[in-house]
Amino acid sequence: MEVESVNTTSRVDVLEVESANTTSRVDVLEVQTVNIAAKVDEMEILSTDMQVLNEETVNTTSRVDVLEEALAEIMLELAQLKEKPGGGGSDECERGYFGANCTACNCTSGGICDDGRKGSGRCACFDGITGERCDKCAVTGRIWPDCTECMSGYYPFQSYSPTKLLDPNGSADDRLGYGGPSLSA
Predict the structure, then answer these.
(1) Same structural domain, 70 and 94
(2) Helix or strand or coil: residue 103?
(3) Are 62 and 50 contained in the same domain?
(4) Do residue 69 and residue 111 come from a single domain?
(5) Which residue range forms the structural domain that includes residue 171?
(6) What is the mean pLDDT of each run of 10 residues along the chain (185 residues)?
(7) pLDDT in tens, 135-179
(8) Which of 110, 112, 114 is nearest to 130 (CA)?
(9) How far apart are CA 3 and CA 7, in angstroms?
(10) Which of 173, 137, 172, 168 is nearest to 181 (CA)?
(11) Cβ burial 91-120 (10 Å sphere, 16+ → b, else e)
(12) What is the spatial distance between Cα 46 and Cα 40, in angstroms, rounded to a whole number?
């Protein structure tokens, strides 16, 4: 009987160990279930985000289509205007021309002309550019046309401005010098 008692005790010990292992496995499965549930929630959020992005892509594509149609119409109008120098007999001047006679604007690439039949021909300069023709850098020490800084030791504290070195009556586009005193008479 004593052997049976030892065997029974031994079986009880084995069952207790197996029960502990089963409890441990159940705990692991519960943690895994929680992790899986969290991943499912995350996937649902990602799915919703993907649906929103897909809808935004469709909307963007339709906006691009509308913009392309508008651009085509503008290009057609521009082509029709270009057929007539200075705007010809149309109601508007070609871009870069202004006034009743469609006179050429005097702006450089540093600005935009107030063009059109009702335009004044005045130049509106881009940021960092100044001058009646938008042909000077607003910051002293910068060099026209891209308004980059002078290298150290070259033309300090001086903005690039055209100087007529040869002909005092030369055009404003004669950029033979970098400012300073004029050498012309």
Answers:
(1) no
(2) strand
(3) yes
(4) no
(5) 143-185
(6) 67 74 77 81 83 78 80 77 56 88 92 92 92 91 81 55 54 52 50
(7) 999 988 888 888 888 766 665 444 445 554 555 565 655 555 444
(8) 110
(9) 6
(10) 168
(11) ebbbeebbbeebeebbbbebbbbebbeebe
(12) 10
DSSP class of 84: S
Overall number of domains in the chain: 3
79 shares its domain with 91: no
Q: Are residues 170 and 103 in the same domain?
A: no
Q: Are residues 51 and 114 in the same domain?
A: no
Co-location of 110 and 165 in the same domain = no
User: Quick one: which of 94, 105, 165 has its CA closest to 135?
Assistant: 105
Give the chain's length. 185
What type of residue sits at position 62? S
DSSP annotation string for 117-147: TT----EEEPTTEETTTT-EESSTTEETTTT
Kindly state the greatest CA–CA separation across the chain. Answer: 136
The one-letter amino acid code at 78 reads L
